[in-house]
Amino acid sequence: MRAFxxxxxxxxxxxxxxxxxxxxxxxxxxxxxxxxxxxxxAESGEAWRKRFxxxxxxxxxxxxxSKKEWVAPEIADDAxxxxxxxxxxxxxxxxxxxxxxxGEILVKQCGTTHTGSFKDLGMTVLVSVVNHAKRIGALxxxxxxxxxxxxxxxxxxxxxxxxxxxVVVLLPRGMVSVAQLVQPxxxxxxxxALETDFDGCMKIVRELAARGLVYLANSMNPLRIEGQKTxxxxxxxxxxxxxxxxxVIPSGNLGNASALYAGFAMAKxxxxxxxxxxxxxxxxxxxxxxxxxxxxKKKDVDAVVAKATQxxxxxxxxxxxxxxxxxxxxxxxxxxxxxxxxxLADACARADRTGLYADPHTGVALACARxxxxxxxxSATDRVVIVSxxxxxxxxxxxxxxxxxxxxxxxxxxxNVPIALPPDVDVVSRNLQ
Length: 433
Description:
Layout: E1 3-7, E2 15-16, E3 31-35, H1 37-40, H2 45-57, E4 90-92, H3 94-100, E5 104-109, H4 119-135, E6 144-147, H5 151-163, E7 167-172, H6 178-186, E8 190-194, H7 198-210, E9 215-216, H8 222-228, H9 230-238, E10 246-250, H10 255-269, E11 278-284, H11 289-295, H12 322-331, E12 335-339, H13 341-352, H14 360-374, E13 383-388, H15 396-403, H16 425-432
Parallel strand pairs: 5-13, 6-7, 6-9, 7-8, 10-11, 10-13, 11-12
Antiparallel strand pairs: 1-2, 1-3, 4-5
């Protein structure tokens, strides 16, 4: 079994996964990872299901690498850099579903991974491939680098540290949460806080990679997609290999939307599932280039200037994976929806009141799913999976700001503040009543 890079738009040519290449050298399009599907199809869909189920029940160290044949089959086992990512819970949000008129809402809790976001799934593959390439002399890497709004930098710093590889992260100064800033600092990465937004950071890191100064770790690199696609495989597996009717995912750079399609499409082609779910891409209204393209019925996503949003990780106006995501949208009969700041914050608060603890990006997905349900795009009998991309523990300032009614553009209808009382049982008793 083997996998290799190829041009996303179909130019001839194959490139090894160990090569530092990010775009097609012939047409400058994005690249994708192509697997030897003939070799994989030598096993039946039922055989793959049994193999993957056996590895899950055996409590494999990594949900990603439990599906190694479908991810990066030629990487040496001792080169794999893992922190036990994947195999995250699929939580049944029954109270929330009942309140909002859904048949079923399931939340895929990707924020329970090592660094607290789904970015771990892609980074374990990318760093493992780099580690393997260095060992066999195929790659001379001075540093692995990324532009980030927080979660990507945390994942890269952790996996780079585990592999003993130098890491550089470019962050937009003042635009990431304290928790997200602390993570790469703690893991020893060189953190460069630039006076620009994510798109500005991305422009610079791409140029650094083009000059051969760093190895690019953003989702333009399709190795990230290979790890993140296992979210789709896990969702199907946790539902006894029956895909849901809908998957709703918050998306900024749009790599995660294309990753879901890559996973579901591969599973369908190999007979592991019998159909594709529908895809809903959820964007913050303040950073919504794909939503604008969808509403205008355009095939290309035009760049916008992303405005401030509480969903800071998806504050991206020029998403590099837009062509991949548009293809995913077409293939999965998908839609795109947007959520305002008030809608995403209120969705988080309402979800929290039912036992969840939702980060603002999951709030975007929840709010968009609710709007789609209200318009009956999602029906009352549909099984809906919301992909929660990060832990809300990274966004304490957002949570506190909501309940203190300090968030811009947010009404905080469900604000809940502590009640200061003297240490008197009678006063406390009267307050309870």
